[in-house]
Amino acid sequence: MKLIKSILTVMTLALALVFITACGASKNSNASSSKARTIDEIKKSGELRIAVFGDKKPFGYVDNDGSYQGYDIELGNQLAKDLGVKVKYVSVDAANRAEYLISNKVDITLANFTVTDERKKQVDFALPYMKVSLGVVSPKDALIKDVKELKGKTLIVTKGTTAETYFEKNHPEVKLQKYDQYSDAYQALLDGRGDAFSTDNTEVLAWALENKGYEVGITSLGDPDTIAPAVQKGNKELLDFINKDIEKLGKENFFHKAYEKTLHPTYGDAAKADDLVVEGGQVK
To answer: How confident is the model at residue 9 (pLDDT cuts 50, 70, 90)?
Structure first.
């Protein structure tokens, strides 16, 4: 009888442990829910979480004082202000921009996010605020002026970018050397680990202006695209807010002012605001 009682006691404790573990797992599951926050929840938290680049000057980068700066940051600051909350920036790599929205780590992605059909399957894009196409930068003494010149050479790209997708689809003959971060990709070019680097033409133009000995030999490649904020798929409430805010800001010439503050100091006369800026979500 004592043996039977002992067995029953052990079984009871085991069942209790399973029940407690299951309840704990259920609570943890709810805590890590990937459902996007509502605007009320964002306001109650007091902060808007925005994914941005921390190393892509002049669009999104961290300055010497540890503060986020750039063209994307100007819009992020304004969106948070118009929601009446503080902004919390989260640095991301190009490859995980969509994942941070899907897993609800951020509310909005503003990391120089080019709109593509493939990405539309993962996230919802708001109205655009910039125009862009691909460019290729290389050393002046071995300048790449045509895609044909890349055959047999190594092209540096950043993972998860439109450049990676474009070359894999249209030019499989070009050898790609891939990096997770833009800073690592540019360092690879500086170190001579590749013959050229491709990403948005706006970005390579800015970089070449700040790095002597390099030039954008191919200034426009592929079809022109737009850059826009993105939210989690189905988050219509936040999407509608962003769209209305972009339309309102367009009437105030907000994006041209942001260009003058953040991009013009880099581009100078090498680019025109109207060629890059999309005001009020209307592409012209």
So the answer is: low
Q: How far apart are CA 138 and CA 140, in angstroms?
A: 6
pLDDT greater than 50 at residue 90: yes
Asked whether 228 and 125 are in contact (CB, 8 A), the reply is yes
CA Rg value for the chain: 24
What is the C-alpha to C-alpha distance for residues 46 and 83, in angstroms, rounded to an integer?
A: 10
| Nearest one of 181, 147, 144 to 161, comparing CA atoms | 181
Q: Which residues make Cβ contacts (< 8 Å) with residue 273, sequence separation at least 6?
A: 256, 259, 260, 263, 264
Q: Is the pTM of this model over 0.85?
A: no
Looking at residue 46, its pLDDT comes to: 98
Domains and CATH numbers, the chain: 37-128+227-273 (3.40.190.10), 131-222 (3.40.190.10)
